[in-house]
């Protein structure tokens, strides 16, 4: 099976994919849209992309691509612990306190906001397509006194020196990665499985009636279906127009879930089922 992931090698996504799939052919892509397009064109059979981080929230490009651009399905969720380290080229190993620039993925920079503010205020921060892309850049530019933020696998792979470890602002730092497929499927992986979930994307009825969101929530609440997430994202049709992403701690097989979706449709909502899948825990090492 060919599996696309947000690369290059040694990204957090790569780490999660390596743990989840034992025999896949892993293929790195530069951006999240590149990963998803490789799936829709048939170049790969699965794609793994970051969906949400415990400190920084959703990865908007992933969520918006799944709603607006493509018709693909979540087949599994991988939850991985995230530890961020500051790394430099060994050439600058003794001068790293005089850095001129720090590079990383936008989510990684945000996860280390307090550290960067108190330790490196005023130093330019540059976004890269991934943490490992930043590490690779640093390894290729010893003449620049620049650092990357990323994981220890990236430091090893690109020969960088970790000068400060665990610089993320809050201890509980985890990221959810979505495994995506063109077809509806449920992937059974070799990791510890914790629960079953379903993700729905819901658009409210177009008449904009008061209480519509309350009606949506009550379809779940009176059936005692537990929600682990609700988030609104712009429909991109005008200010104040949103769709809702709702995660339910249930498989779609249950009669209550089917009833809830029927009720939402009867209320005039549009419901897109993004997936009904198992949640897996990725070990640190
Ligand atoms: O940039 C990476 O390494 C990724 O895989 C995306 C990401 C960035 C920050 C935290 C978790 C995942």
Automatic annotation (TrEMBL):
Q: Where is this site: Essential for prephenate dehydratase activity?
A: 175
Keywords, ordered alphabetically = Amino-acid biosynthesis, Aromatic amino acid biosynthesis, Lyase, Phenylalanine biosynthesis
Top-level taxon of the source organism: Bacteria
Q: Which residues form the Prephenate dehydratase domain?
A: 2-182
* EC number in record: 4.2.1.51
* Keyword Membrane applies: no
GO BP terms: L-phenylalanine biosynthetic process
CDD domains, per the entry? ACT_CM-PDT, PBP2_Sa-PDT_like
Protein's name in the database? Prephenate dehydratase
Q: Which organism is it from?
A: Jeotgalibacillus soli
């Amino acid at each position: 099976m060919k599996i696309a992931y947000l690369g290059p090698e040694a990204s957090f996504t790569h780490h999660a994919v390596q743990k989840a799939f034992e025999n896949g052919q892993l293929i790195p892509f530069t951006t999240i849209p590149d990963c998803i397009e490789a799936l829709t064109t048939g170049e790969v059979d699965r794609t793994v992309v970051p969906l949400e981080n415990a400190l920084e929230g959703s990865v908007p490009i992933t969520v918006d691509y799944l709603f607006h651009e493509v018709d693909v399905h979540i087949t599994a969720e991988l939850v991985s612990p995230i530890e961020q380290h500051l790394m430099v080229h060994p050439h600058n190993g003794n001068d790293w306190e005089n850095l001129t620039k720090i590079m990383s993925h936008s989510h990684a920079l945000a996860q280390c906001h307090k550290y960067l503010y108190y330790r490196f205020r005023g130093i330019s921060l540059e976004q890269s397509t991934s943490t490992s892309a930043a590490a690779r850049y640093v390894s290729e530019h010893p003449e620049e006194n620049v650092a990357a933020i990323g994981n220890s696998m990236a430091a090893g792979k690109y020969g960088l020196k970790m000068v400060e470890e665990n610089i993320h602002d809050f201890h509980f730092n985890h990221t959810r990665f979505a495994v995506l497929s063109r077809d509806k499927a449920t992937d059974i992986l070799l990791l510890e499985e914790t629960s079953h979930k379903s993700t729905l994307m819901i658009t409210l009825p177009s008449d904009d009636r008061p209480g519509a969101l309350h009606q949506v929530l009550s379809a779940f609440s009176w059936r005692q279906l537990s929600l682990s997430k609700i988030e609104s994202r712009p429909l991109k049709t005008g200010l104040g127009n949103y769709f809702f992403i709702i995660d339910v701690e249930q498989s779609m097989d249950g009669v209550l879930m089917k009833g809830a979706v029927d009720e939402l449709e009867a209320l005039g909502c549009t419901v897109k089922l993004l997936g009904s899948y198992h949640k897996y825990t990725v070990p640190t090492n």
